[in-house]
Amino acid sequence: MNTQCTGFELSANMSRRSVLQSFGLGLGGLALADLMNPQQTLATDATMPEKTPHPGILESTHHEPRAKRVIFLFQAGGPSQMDLFDHKPLLNEKHGTELPAEVRMGQRLTGMSGNQASLPLVGSPFKFQQHGESGAWLSNLLPHTAKVADDLCFIKSMYTEAINHGPGVTFMQTGSQFPGRPSMGSWLDYGLGTENRNLPAFVVMVTKNKGGQPLVSRLWGSGFLPSRHQGVRFRSGKDPVLYLNNPNGIDTEGKRNMLDALGELHRLRLKEADDPLIETQIAQYELSHRMQMSIPEATDLSKEPKHIIESYGKDVTNAGSFAANCLLARRLAERGVRFIQLYHQGWDQHGNLPGQLPVQCRETDQPSAALIADLKQRGLLDDTLVIWGGEFGRTNYCQGKLSGSNFGRDHHPRCFSIWMAGGGIKPGVSYGQTDPYCYNIEENAMHIHDLHATIMHLMGIDHERLTFRYQGRRFRLTDVHGHIVKEILA
């Protein structure tokens, strides 16, 4: 029996799509390609420019950008807004009394407090004062943030549909409560690319040795976007990026020769298969080689002036601390990294809030304020957007039984506070207002999609036009809604 194929030559290297097309099933091949590798069939609104080393999909921004980069200081767990930014004297007056039914309005609670027979209101044990010319109210837990209050825009009317940590953090990072969507940093890298060919466009740092809800890599993943747009995690220690350095016995020249040979093989394969994944692999190998020189220089804090080191606090010398990561974020920002994501866990105070919240603030208050001041004195704050906040807020009532001065607060998605600074944001203002009980929003509600739309706008992107076709429809960071909050724009 003659087993030789006729009409075409079937090689071991032929792709599934090529096989289908060779059998005359071109439409089937296109369908399979769209399912298996959607970026290959993507129709974009602009061709990718070839002159820049890592271009975005956009030939140019949709409008003049106000920010070139983003630093997101994400406080995982849900910081308590009425103990930090949203001053509510009524809660102190009503301390220990029942949450009024007309305030709750039957809204759902988590399983941790939904079955409580009593929901006693709890006032903040921390003192509040007004600061700066703006008169911003801040807790005495944030003395350093108070010094830069006139540079900040406090948003007190954020809300979300997510009531638990997993969906909540995923929503804030990706615009969806469901895993699998690209993170915000990936969207910006996809659209705009990078300004530094020797560093990743999207860098992630997690405060080391912090307990709390787990943080998983999909939070900075690229989802259905090409994998080169996922975040690169920097770790503390001598090897900030895993597997970047050469293994024992391989020197720089040998690594270069290996990459050249591998690149030539990839290019030969590319002529046959026309697979964009191969181009991505070539680019990533080359980036990793360049990063062997750029990463050690960027992460070396020893050359920073003494007064800058001291401004970030005593923890800055502890590699992997939030303070060290804030200083490193500034160094990456001035080197052109597009999106810098810092995660700090431990804000989930279901119990012993009076004892735990001050610890969190001591770790984050001074470094956050120092970052703002450092960017400002270098002229970087004007085009660097800094965001501070978590996935939701905390309840105004006590979770469990209220006993003496010890209490905890449950998750509260109905209202929470964040702050933003720089990058086209109006400084020294507060936006939005909650009711006197800090339970519902009374004025200027701002959804997570609105926040994302505003961030994209500041970066020069129309959030409705930066899309990616996947599984039969076009996706975007803001999904199906989201409005630019023009009132907070400078």
Tell me what the structure shows.
By secondary structure, this protein is α/β, with parallel strands linked by helices. It folds into 2 domains: 69-240 and 303-488, Alkaline Phosphatase, subunit A, CATH 3.40.720.10; 245-298. It has helices at residues 16-22, 26-36, 89-93, 101-104, 143-147, 165-174, 184-192, 252-273, 276-298, 306-311, 322-334, 353-377, 448-458; strands spanning 69-75, 128-131, 136-139, 152-159, 202-206, 232-234, 339-344, 384-389, 393-394, 411-412, 416-421, 429-431, 433-434, 441-443, 446-447, 468-470, 473-475. The strands form 5 sheets. Strands 1, 4, 5, 6, 7, 8, 11, 12 and 15 form a 9-stranded mixed β-sheet that branches. It has a two-stranded antiparallel sheet with strand order 2-3. Strands 9-10 form a two-stranded antiparallel sheet. Helix 8 (252-273) packs antiparallel against helix 9 (276-298) and helix 11 runs parallel beside helix 12. The radius of gyration is 25 Å and the shape is globular.
